[in-house]
Write a structure and sequence with these properties.
The protein has a single domain, classed as Fumarylacetoacetate hydrolase, domain 2, CATH 3.90.850.10. It contains four helices and 14 strands. The chain has a seven-stranded mixed β-sheet with strand order 2-1-11-5-6-8-3, covered by helices on one side. The chain has a four-stranded antiparallel β-sheet with strand order 10-9-13-14, with no helix packed on it. It is globular. Bound molecules: magnesium ion. The site of magnesium ion has 8 residues, from strand 1.
Length: 203
């Protein structure tokens, strides 16, 4: 399986990083070794001094797809979950400055934390899903899919023009504003609506 992440998909987050608002979805990949499941702890890596949390809704692909048309994109996923796209912001800033790829800052081991998934049927309106991240009991990020620049269906259509999607692939759909550093000892809890789906610590 592969992990595809969408960058700058909430305007307020693009602004907080002084990034331009994209005209088409921006995406990058993480390898399967990035996946952090079952509420396992995240081990703070020694190569960074500034690991940021980015809470994101995640869709799980349920069948292979290539050149998916937006009007059929909804048939390619049944489940929506929540995860953290951990980012070594100090390394990413260096890469951006030098015009280099982001992998070092984004694709490292454990950088894709993932929680439980929910059947998408339980959401009346996919364009109105609330989600949030709490650290040590305080809400640090709050998002709603009504603020997505590119909808789930638009993302699937765009990415599948370039990369064939396969069963089990995960798509991290972008983070809302409020990203910031984590530190050893922090407890992260992520919710979709009122359901806690992810709960783990930074070691
Ligand atoms: Mg992200």
């Amino acid at each position: 399986m592969k992990i595809i992440c969408i960058g700058r998909n909430y305007a307020e987050h693009a602004k907080e990083l002084n990034s331009e608002i994209p005209q088409e979805p921006v995406f990058f990949l993480k390898p399967d070794t990035a996946l952090l499941k079952d509420n396992k702890p995240f081990y703070y890596p020694d190569f960074s001094k500034e690991i940021h949390h980015e809470v994101e809704l995640v869709i799980k692909i349920n069948k292979p797809g290539k050149n998916i048309q937006p009007q059929f994109a909804n048939r390619y996923y049944d489940e929506i979950g929540i995860g953290i796209d951990f980012t070594a912001r100090d390394i990413q800033a260096e890469c951006k400055k030098k015009g280099l790829p982001w992998e070092k800052a984004k694709a490292f081991d454990g950088s894709a934390s993932i929680g439980k998934f929910l059947d998408k049927k339980q959401f009346a309106e996919e364009k109105n899903i609330n989600f949030e991240l709490m650290i040590n009991g305080n809400i640090v990020q709050k998002g709603n899919t009504k603020n997505l620049l590119f909808s789930f269906d638009a993302i699937l259509a765009h990415v599948s023009r370039f990369i064939t999607l396969k069963t089990g692939d995960l798509i991290y759909t972008g983070t809302p504003e409020g990203v910031g550093p984590v530190k050893i000892g922090d407890r992260l809890e992520a919710y979709i609506e009122n359901q806690k789906l992810l709960d783990f610590e930074i070691y």
